[in-house]
Amino acid sequence: MNIVLDTNILVSAVWSPGRNASDILNAAFARKFNVCYDYRILEEYDRILHYPKLRFSEWEINSILDPIIKYGISIVADPLPAVPFERDETDRKFYEVAKFCKAILITGNLAHYPSEPDILSPADFCRKYL
C-alpha cells in the first residue's frame, strides 16, 4: 500500500514516540507501506526538520529521511490545479503525489485538505491499517 506523509507526521513521530505518528513511521520503515514523495515534499521535510526551534539533531533527521529516500517511491506528480487549497497552498504537493500514486495521505491537518476517504488522520489510519 502506498502512503504519503504530511510533514507534521514526521515531526510528531519524533516528538511523541509510541504514539500514532511514530507507529506509522515505524511501519513504513519496516516496509509495510511504501512512502511516496517528490522533490517538493523531500525539500519541505528537510527544511522543516532543520528548523532551529525543533532542535532535532542531524542524526535524528537523517534517521527519518534516509529510509524514506532509500525505500520510498520518488515520483513526479501531475499538477492538479482545479483542486482548491484555500487554507494552505503548500499542502497541494502532498495531495498531488497521493493522487498520482493512488496513496493514502496521512495528515494531522485534515482541515487543509478536501474531505476524501483516502485522506486520514494518524489515529484513523492506525485504526484502519495497523
Could you explain the architecture of this structure?
With 130 residues, the chain is α/β, with parallel strands linked by helices. It has a single domain, classed as 3-Layer(aba) Sandwich (Rossmann fold), CATH 3.40.50. Helices cover 48% and strands 12% of the residues. It is built from six helices and five strands; from the N terminus they run βααβααβαββα. The protein has helices at 7-15, 20-29, 39-49, 58-71, 92-101, 122-129; strands spanning 2-5, 34-37, 73-74, 104-106, 119-120. Strands 3-2-1-4-5 form a five-stranded parallel beta sheet, sandwiched between helices. Helix 1 (7-15) packs across helix 2 (20-29) and helix 2 crosses helix 6 (122-129). The chain is globular. The two termini are 12 Å apart.
In short:
With 130 residues, the chain is of the alpha/beta class. The chain has helices at 7-15, 20-29, 39-49, 58-71, 92-101, 122-129; strands at residues 2-5, 34-37, 73-74, 104-106, 119-120. 48% of the residues lie in helices and 12% in strands.
